[in-house]
Amino acid sequence: MTIPEAELQRLLRMGRAILGVPGSSEEMLASLTAFIEGIERLPLSQISSENEDSLRELASLHAQVLAYAGTIKADWAKGLGELRRRGRGILAYADQLPKQLSSRPSKKG
């Protein structure tokens, strides 16, 4: 039994779509998660020579998607740092309580 070619083609389309979307959004993040989960579900024990070309292309695309995700992560970290810096500036200007900003919601329960 081999890996279904339709599944490989679906993952290839998904990966190309992720790389084709500029910027970062919730929809792109959901697509990225679905792509990674799809790769993890592939039955690698069923690799055959007829899937070899598609799998090579998928491996290359996977590396590109991971590099893209790394740049998005760095951009988000930079953006969050900028927001924290601006928040501290606003608090210093107002000079009123609270003296600390939290970027995480409070825990419930």
What does this molecule look like?
- This protein is mainly alpha-helical and 109 residues long.
- It has a domain at 5-73.
- Helices cover 69% and strands 0% of the residues.
- It has helices at residues 5-20, 26-41, 52-94.
- The protein is elongated.
- It starts with a helix and ends in a 15-residue tail after the last helix.
- The relative contact order is 0.12.
- The model has no long low-confidence stretch (mean pLDDT 81).
Summarize it:
With about 110 residues, the protein is an all-alpha fold. The protein is about 70% helix and about 0% strand.
Short key terms for the protein model shown above:
single chain; 109 residues; mainly alpha; 69% helix; 0% strand
Describe the sheet with the most strands. none
Shape: elongated
What is the ordering of alpha helices and beta strands?
HHH
Secondary-structure-derived class:
mainly alpha
List the helices and strands and how they pair.
Layout lengths: L4 H16 L5 H16 L10 H43 L15
Helix pairs in contact: 1-2, 1-3
